[in-house]
Here is the input.
Amino acid sequence: MNCNWLAAALAAGMAMGVESVSADPDGSADPEGFAACVAQLGDQARERGLPAESVDPVLAGLEYQARVIELDRAQPEFSQTFAAYLRTRVTDDRVRRGRELLARHEGLLERLTREFGVPGRYLIAFWGLETNYGSFLGSMPTLDSLATLACDPRRAGFFSEQFLTGLELLQREELSPEQMRGSWAGAMGHTQFMPSAYLEHAVDGDGDGRIDLWGSIEDALASAANYLNHLGWNSGERWGREVRLPDDFPWHESGIDLRRPLEEWAALGVRRADGGPLPVADFDAALLLPMGHRGAAFLVYPNFDVIMRWNRSQAYALSVGILADRVVGGSGVSGRLSLLETLPSRTQLKQLQQTLAALGFDPGEPDGIFGPATREALRAFQRQAGKPADGYPDADTIAALESNSLD
Here is the structure.
């Protein structure tokens, strides 16, 4: 799902969000306050100059979507292991279909590469990850979903902005609320654009004078290319690659925020997955261990950061890169992808976060979600405890945490 998390971070810091509806103890929204919250959204829409005769009927028809809140709290990027996530998204069937579509749309994709600098295999990969090449565009009512999330305390600021932008789109594109359907989080069309991305970066790819991300593959792929270009795609560079590490590798050097030039990674013994030397290139890279030090390892380049600006999940970004490689003949991941170890449950992760905090390692607000702050806190604990500091909650690390909490 294209969530434009760069815009999310900016929106979170702006005093433009509505007051969220009251929340249950677990942090989920209370639908009883939905009508009052929608009224505030209407006030903001009118302050933006959106005409009441257009906005008021839409607001009157909005319905609270309890299922949206359930899905928001159970996103697979944070609840599945990387192995499980990858195996359900980069399937042999999706690779086969991607190759067919790469060939079918060769002329279009070559034109988009010339115009925007983004190779066709990546556009195919985003398309495949987002909607399985258009086979499922989502059936949730977009404005209802966005209003529900705007009135939820977790990310009210971001989704308030997306809802209001959705109302602007309704006018600009002459859409009806019934036409605006997509994912539970409000993403729309073949490449699942959030309203802000649709408004700012969607383009007319088929030259018919209008933009239709639902009905026109040309519009959807051209818009994706334009958006990636705007996010900073580096023409001529890969996303990254799987690598092989020596047995004595310093595991604490891994992590998305620890960057080194390629030549320094080579000096640490990092090699390509096939055993060959790393390429010679003038940019920094980070090492990711999504299954811990016993699993596959990936060196990620600047374009990986661009993919992460589309969707802030490392599992998603890795899947885009791996699918893009396989679509053009790559063999896939050669390192260990084991499903023997699963992520702890949300309740267990919340307890893990509380234990880390009690021991002086800051995982952020204990929320039961295995995000970047928790991973870094766990890495710091592992290093102090003499464990491989890979930031992965394996059984040995959890046992060591439990032991330390009893001391």
Q: What stands out?
A: The first helix runs from residue 5 to 12.
